[in-house]
Design goal:
With 127 residues, the protein is mostly helical. It contains four helices and two strands; from the N terminus they run H-E-E-H-H-H.
């Protein structure tokens, strides 16, 4: 058998440190989240199509109804998600594509200078 590493003590310490549920005031609604994020919910939050189900599972039916009643915008949800990540000590991955495209300009970009600049390197030595 290879090396055996028992992390039971570390897990017990984490469970003890988790403490009480976390209450966020979000647009006037009190949203109570579990003291620690279950792994299944973490995985669901990484999939945009499952984020709503993750919220419902973490908040419970009444909490999720209170959350939905706030009619959150995408940016408001992201603010809540970032606060949750911070509270749980989770670093969210790279953000996905923006939900709203950047405005485009009708004119193409143009060069910032009219010509080239002189080289600041000394001329090559001739041997």
């Amino acid at each position: 058998m290879g090396r055996v590493i028992d992390i039971s003590g570390k897990l017990a310490a984490l469970q003890e440190a988790a403490g009480e549920p976390i209450v966020f005031i979000f647009k006037g609604a009190e949203l109570t989240f579990p003291a620690s994020v279950p792994f299944e919910m973490l995985v669901m939050f990484t999939k945009p199509a499952e984020a709503a189900l993750a919220m419902e599972n973490m908040l419970g039916p009444a909490g999720y109804a209170a959350f939905r009643a706030t009619a959150p915008s995408a940016s408001e949800f992201m603010a809540l998600f970032e606060a949750l990540c911070q509270e749980y000590g989770i670093t969210p991955g790279e953000s996905g594509a923006s939900m709203t495209p950047s405005p485009s300009t009708p004119a193409p970009s143009r060069p910032t200078s009219l010509g080239s600049t002189a080289s600041t390197l000394p001329p090559p030595s001739q041997s």
